Amino acid sequence: MVVVTLADLTYRYRQFLIAVMGAGMVLGMGLPMAGLVGGFSAETSQTVGGVGADRWVLTDSSAGRIAAVGLFPESEVAVIAHTPGVTGADPLVVLPQEVASVNGGIETVNVMGVRVGAMGDPGRPPGGR
Mean pLDDT per segment of 10 residues, for the chain of length 129 residues? Predict the structure, then answer.
């Protein structure tokens, strides 16, 4: 049985080599893709959690991006704060700006605007209310 299998592999070595290389390429692309998906998830949760929040509310104009500039009236913060299940809400603005050329590349800085003592205030411990 083993002799027949080895003889078949010797006869069809190119097909076997192509199948092994194809499977290796599929598995080799799976790891970077899984890391990319995990990175997107971790970046979003760390960005939201970095200001001490559980969730962010975005406008339709922000197109789902946390750092997109999408403004809505501050009066909406009070409406969100009084929504059942919400323990507190504070306004926050994030403005991504390309500000400097460093070593031939443009650096982006996120400028954040918060109320003093509210979520996102650097002088306030994260998660504290």
Answer: 85 89 94 89 78 77 65 82 86 77 79 79 61
- Counting Cα atoms < 13 Å in the Cβ hemisphere of 87 gives 8
Q: How far apart are CA 127 and CA 98, in angstroms?
A: 29
Q: Helix %, strand %, coil % for the chain, to 5?
A: 45, 15, 40
Q: What span, in angstroms and rounded, lies between the C-alpha atoms of 63 and 70?
A: 8
Bridge partners (DSSP) of residue 92 are: 114
Tokens of 31: 């790891």
Structural domain boundaries in the chain: 1-50, 55-119
Long-range pairs, 56-65, Cβ under 8 A, ≥24: 56/92, 57/89
For the chain, the distance separating the N- and C-terminal CA atoms, rounded to the nearest angstrom, is: 72
CA distances from 48 to 42, 55, 65, 79, 126 (A): 10, 7, 12, 20, 11
Which parts of the chain fold into alpha helices (H)?
2-11, 13-49, 75-81
Q: What is the pTM of this model?
A: 0.52
